[in-house]
């Protein structure tokens, strides 16, 4: 005789969040989530009205967790660009689904990322403009993703040198 498993909104949401971190948004489909929960789609639809509602809840959870990581790693109103960059890089790696979506150019995710990260970069004058901050955050994510893909270790020194070089190169090219 089989055991009946009770599905709660949190269990489904956390399973969907895990899928998001593995594959980004592409696996945030009701059937994929049901399969990961070892369930049919019915318990999911009984707790989430639509795929869009579940998608929104997962994205909200991802950014909520990112904000907690940022608050843990970066003091608000930090004036150290190097320290803030490094701590942002550490925090963003805790939410690989967001990294995947930024790397794929998902503007909805990028815009939310800028909004969440803005308070942590607000005391760095050259990053007060949202467009400059957007480019800067995408650059950080690109650097850490490239290193991760190449299986190389990215030291703090290397990261800071790359960011300094790229910022120097890009600064005159960013038009607002």
Protein model, in words:
It is a single chain. This protein has a single domain (9-173), classed as Tetracycline Repressor, domain 2 (Orthogonal Bundle). Helix content is 69%, strand content 0%. α1 packs across α6 (96-103) and α4 (51-73) runs parallel beside α7 (107-121). With 176 residues, the chain is an all-alpha fold.
List the helices and strands and how they pair.
Elements: H1 9-23, H2 30-36, H3 42-47, H4 51-73, H5 81-92, H6 96-103, H7 107-121, H8 130-149, H9 156-170
Main traits of this protein?
176 residues; Tetracycline Repressor, domain 2
Brief summary:
With 176 residues, this protein is mainly alpha-helical.
What's the CATH architecture?
Orthogonal Bundle
Q: Which ranges are low-confidence, i.e. pLDDT below 50, for 5 or more consecutive residues?
A: none
Strand content: under 5%
- What would CATH call the homologous superfamily? Tetracycline Repressor, domain 2
The name of the CATH topology is Tetracycline Repressor, domain 2
Q: Regarding CATH, which class? A: Mainly Alpha
Q: What is the N-to-C order of secondary-structure elements (H for helix, E for strand)?
A: HHHHHHHHH
Distance between the termini: 65 Å
- Approximate helicity band: 55-70%
What is the oligomer described by this structure? single chain
* Largest beta-sheet details: none
**Number of helices in the DSSP assignment:** 9
Number of β-strand runs: 0
Computed over alpha carbons, the radius of gyration is 18 Å
Task: Assign the structural class, choosing from mainly alpha, mainly beta, alpha/beta, alpha+beta, or little secondary structure.
Answer: mainly alpha
On the 0-100 scale, what is the average pLDDT? 86
**Coarse shape:** elongated
Count of folded domains: 1
């Amino acid at each position: 005789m089989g055991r009946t498993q009770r599905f709660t909104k949190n269990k489904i949401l956390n399973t969907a969040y895990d899928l998001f971190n593995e594959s980004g948004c592409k696996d945030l489909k009701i059937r994929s989530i049901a399969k990961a929960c070892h369930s049919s789609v019915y318990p999911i639809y009984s707790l989430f009205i639509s795929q869009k509602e579940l998608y929104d809840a997962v994205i909200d959870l991802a950014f909520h967790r990112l904000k907690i990581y940022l608050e843990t790693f970066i003091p608000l109103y930090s004036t150290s660009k190097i320290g803030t960059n490094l701590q942002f890089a550490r925090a963003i790696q805790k939410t690989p689904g967001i990294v995947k979506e930024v790397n794929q150019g998902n503007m909805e995710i990028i815009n939310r990322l800028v909004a969440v990260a803005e308070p942590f970069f607000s005391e760095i004058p050259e990053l007060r403009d949202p467009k400059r901050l957007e480019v800067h955050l995408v650059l950080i994510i690109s650097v850490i993703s490239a290193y991760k893909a190449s299986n190389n270790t990215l030291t703090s020194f290397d990261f800071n040198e790359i960011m300094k070089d790229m910022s120097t190169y890009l600064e005159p090219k960013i038009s607002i």
